[in-house]
Amino acid sequence: MIQNIEPHEFHNDWSPRRPSGDDIVFGYDRRNAILRSDQTFFRWKDLGSAHEYVYLFSIDDTAFFLTEIPVMDQAISLNINFTRTYEPRWLGYACAVGWHLYSWMRINRYCGACGHQMMMDGKERALRCPHCGNLIYPRINPAVIVGILNPDNQLLITQYAIRHGEYRHDALVAGYCEIGEDIEDCVRREVREETGLSVGNLRYYKSQPWPFSESLLFGFFCDQEGGELIKLDRRELKSAVWKNPDDSFDVPGNASLTAEMIQMFRDGKVKFGG
Fold first, then answer.
1. Could you give the CA distance from residue 265 to residue 268 in angstroms, rounded to a whole number?
2. Could you give the 3-state DSSP secondary structure of residue 84?
3. Cα of 176 vs its chain's centroid, Å
4. What is the pLDDT, as a whole number, of residue 157?
5. Would you kindly state where each structural domain of the chain is located, as residue ranges?
6. Which of 171, 157, 39, 22 is nearest to 92 (CA)?
7. Secondary structure of residue 192 in the 3-state scheme
8. What pLDDT score does 165 carry?
9. Whole-number pLDDT of residue 164
10. Do residues 25 and 53 make contact, with C-beta atoms less than 8 angstroms apart?
11. What's the pLDDT score for residue 85?
């Protein structure tokens, strides 16, 4: 998955410092990242001290910073989705997480309580209003990815409705956790709402930070209970079909939790009743 960057170590503790030398600098324009024309990232030595920099995090001994990169001949703009397959992976992941933080800062420039301009807090990764003290932490949306198995040991594969953005490949049932809802109830509700099915025997698989939707994903496998037919919520899903492990699948790359869970099924590592 995209966050698996071993042997590199991701350091997200709040230990800001000033940029220097080969430290990497990210610039973004809404959902686009600004790179050098050769699709490498800018470094502090390329831009110099004329800019204002915000510390983001470090990987190994390399620090990453955010700034506004000016329009220049040697710069290109790419949709942030390019980071899903960028090599080396650790730099692609850094750029995606950097975009997550940039997006949080961009939409919280002003205090929602009193309207004053927000500032980076000096003690932790947060935005603080210097007027009223309002504190805003990075947005992290809890969501579930659900692999549903039926008694014939088939996996339910979905495709999202067009309203759900650019992704047009195979997927699993997914959705965000609601206020006052635990993550297991979220699994049952999302499956019922999107497919009309009832499920049980929930097995937690693993989690994934997913910067592209500012989410923390919780992966579950579960079993179909009862004999209901699929009833699609057409607002959420374009299609939902049962597939066997040896059927064809349209899953690009291995960056996502969805891709890994589908591969686990194809490899025979998860089964109905397991």
1. 5
2. helix
3. 13
4. 97
5. 10-107, 109-138, 141-266
6. 39
7. helix
8. 65
9. 64
10. yes
11. 93
Q: Name which of 165, 196, 172 is nearest 257 in CA terms.
A: 172
pLDDT for 203-228, tens place per residue? 999 999 999 999 999 999 999 998 88
Task: Catalogue the long-range contacts made by 65-72 (C-beta closer than 8 Å, 24 or more residues apart).
Answer: 65/19, 65/23, 65/24, 65/25, 65/26, 66/25, 66/26, 66/27, 66/28, 66/98, 66/101, 66/102, 66/105, 67/25, 67/26, 67/27, 68/27, 69/25, 69/27, 69/34, 69/42
The whole-number pLDDT of residue 134 equals 96
Q: What is the number of other CB atoms lying within 10 angstroms of the CB of residue 256?
A: 24
Q: Which residues of the chain have pLDDT under 50?
A: none
CA distances for 269 relative to 16, 265, 273, angstroms: 43, 6, 12
Q: What is the CATH number of domain 141-266?
A: 3.90.79.10
Amino acid at 30: R
**Unique residue bearing structure tokens 């591969």:** 263
| Parallel/antiparallel/unpaired status of strands 62-66 and 24-29 | parallel
Look at residue 213 and give its three-state secondary structure.
helix
Contact between residue 24 and residue 60 where contact means Cβ atoms under 8 Å apart: no
Could you give the 3-state DSSP secondary structure of residue 41? coil
128 φ/ψ angles, rounded to the nearest 5 degrees = -125, 140
Indicate whether this model's pTM tops 0.70.
Answer: yes
24: number of CA atoms within 13 Å, CB side? 21
Single-letter residue type at 109: R
Q: Which of 206, 237, 236, 238 is nearest to 221 (CA)?
A: 206
**Cα(2)–Cα(208) distance, integer angstroms:** 9
